[in-house]
Structure formats: C-alpha cells, structure tokens
Design a protein that fits this description.
Elements: E1 2-7, H1 18-27, E2 30-35, H2 40-52, E3 56-60, H3 72-84, E4 88-97, H4 105-122, E5 126-131, H5 134-144, E6 154-156, H6 163-171, E7 175-178, H7 188-196, E8 202-204, H8 226-237, H9 241-255
Parallel strand pairs: 1-2, 2-3, 3-4, 4-5, 5-6, 6-7, 7-8
The structure holds nickel (II) ion.
Length: about 260
C-alpha cells in the first residue's frame, strides 16, 4: 500500500484518461492520492475531486509562480472552506522558487508567510515548494514556528537540496518527500539524501503529471508510478519494498492528520 502525497490530477493532462489513471493507481496499490493546489482554480478543483472520490484528498495553495494571487481576503475565504471540509488536508504548495519563478522575491515571501499563518491558524500541515531558495525558506519557517520539541507539520516536497540542508530540516522535524527524480541515474545527491533520511522523516509522491520516473521517462507521470520511487528508495536504503511502503504510508497518515 502506498499514498501518493503530491499529485495534480485536476490538471488538463488528465482530462482524457482520468478514470483509467485512478484504476491504474489502485492496481499499483496506491490507496490514497492528495491533489495539491497551486493557484485558486486548481485548489478549488482539487476540493471538487475530493468530494467526488473517496480516496482523493486536497490541499489549498498558491505556488510561488503565482504568488501575486495570495491575498488576505483569499486566506480568509480559505480559512472558512477548511473548517467546513475535512478532506482539505493541508496548505500548499507554497514557498520560494528563485530558479524559475519570475515573481519578485518580496512578493513570493509575502505569499509564503500568508500561507504559513493560515496553516497555523487552522492547524493543518504545510507543503513547501523550494527551489534555489533554501536559506530564505528556512529563515521564514524559523521565524514563523518555534521548534521546541518535534514539529511534524512541514514537508519539503520533491526535495532536491543538499544532504547537509536536509539534516537541518530533519533536526527541526521537517519531512523530506521524494519524487521519481530519485530514480534518475544522475540524481546522486538526492539518492544520498534518501539513503540518510530517517525512517520517520520521508514520504513519497509523483508530482503527476510531471517528473515521471526513469522507467517511464518522457511520458506523462501518474500516481501508479509512485511505486517506482518506493522501489528505488528500498534499493538505496537496502531494505524491502514492503518496508518502504509501510513506513512512507504511516508517515503520510501521521503528517496529513485529517486523512486518517
Ligand atoms: Ni507540485
């Protein structure tokens, strides 16, 4: 059994084959899928899907690419929506992207802070997107959270930073999540991070429709392929596939508390 903790099944790429993608996921042992919002529309669509399908869940988030969309009014609206809907299991993806985003850093930081405040006020976990902005991301998280004891409500999705930085995250009780990138022969650093990740500090995800694992590289990604990531982590950690499934699922259920 696996949980795909980060997918975007509401994207148009899945318009044609939606039911097929869901049944393939089921065949591959993927019991739950969390659709991650990136802007207002995709967040709303993720919620709609979660209402239609029992094993689908949703998060509300504004990606750094669209940071201008994060306003106080929207946060107020979302606060209400979350209190009324238990299938919204987190906030994000939100964070900082100094690699591809064309939005000014200050605008990104403001959107990130607003969403952290929202997550804290409704007590749901935070899904962080971070590219080439590791120190700034951590500075903002440190400013917003006090890390007395283990705080388990933050995940760096598709973690692609250094092992040293990952250790800083784990020390703070922040989880790292791995995508199909970990299966690429060139992803040596990410494999090193996966090898060292404490057993209670990692989750698996696809980021579908993006980042298909090596075996399906070039094709559209889908939740069923999260099994490839789990298999690679088993190989890297030199443990059984079943153990990776069991631990990553346990971690995901603990992390996304509302999903239990
Ligand atoms: Ni994503």
């Amino acid at each position: 059994m696996l949980i795909d903790t980060h997918a975007h099944l509401m994207f148009h790429e899945f318009d044609e084959n939606f039911e097929d993608v869901l049944s393939k996921a089921k065949e591959a042992g993927v019991i739950k899928i969390i659709n991650i919002g990136c802007d207002v529309k995709s967040s709303e669509d993720a919620v709609l899907l979660s209402q239609k399908y029992e094993n689908l869940y949703a998060t509300l988030g504004i990606h750094p690419y669209d940071a201008v969309l994060a306003t106080n009014d929207l946060m107020e609206e979302w606060k209400k929506l979350i209190s009324e809907n238990k299938k919204i299991v987190g906030i994000g993806e939100c964070g900082l992207d100094y690699c591809k985003a064309e939005v000014p850093k200050d605008v990104q930081k403001n959107a990130f802070r607003l969403q952290i405040d929202l997550a804290k006020s409704v007590n749901v976990p935070l899904v962080v997107h971070c590219r080439d902005a590791y120190e700034d991301c951590l500075e903002i998280l440190d400013e917003k959270f006090s890390f007395d004891g283990k705080y388990v409500g933050i995940v760096f999705h598709c973690y692609s930073g250094t092992l040293d930085f990952a250790k800083k995250l784990w020390d703070r009780g922040i989880i790292t999540s791995f995508t199909g990138i970990v299966t690429y022969p060139s992803a040596k650093e990410m494999q090193e991070v996966a090898k060292n990740a404490p057993m209670d500090m990692f989750m698996v995800e696809t980021d579908s429709p993006y980042l298909a694992p090596q075996k399906f590289r070039g094709k559209m990604n889908q939740p069923a392929y999260v099994a490839e990531t789990a298999m690679k982590i088993a190989e890297i950690k030199d443990i059984s596939y079943e153990e990776v499934c069991e631990k990553s699922t346990e971690n995901a259920k603990r992390f996304f508390e509302r999903m239990k």
